[in-house]
Amino acid sequence: MLKMVRQQMICIIAPGWRGAVDFSDSGDMQSALNALLQDVAVIQFASIALLPARTDAREQAPSLMLELAVEEGIDPKDMLYRLVHHPSGAMWSLFSSYWPGGGPPLVSARNGQLFDKLIGWLSLADGGFVGPRDRTARQIRKEHDLLIWTPG
Fold it and tell me: Rounded CA gap, 39 and 55, in Å?
């Protein structure tokens, strides 16, 4: 019997996004995001979307939405801190368009400003999934590795 399972979700919706990021398989952003999500190791699902501007918005640029389904018990502020301060710089690459001059020269100052901005756009939600969600991100990764390793 299938049942609905609740999952903790973290969403960042950044209005007026003017970035230009290459999300193709060969792009640097794809590699940086893969490194980020694998290293953080508690994200079970992630999606990135461009949402159209609201019709009544003063600025008609789209919003960038980053949606993460994370393991239960993860503090959202801690999760955001880990994402922003990851050495891949993926979060800065996504959101650097909010600093037209390139932001502060020191990475620590840049990450601090990014964290402060993103915390203002952070929303918590519960996602609903059909089927069992009893595996950790690490277990899912190990099962994937086993599948690749198994011949045939």
Answer: 38
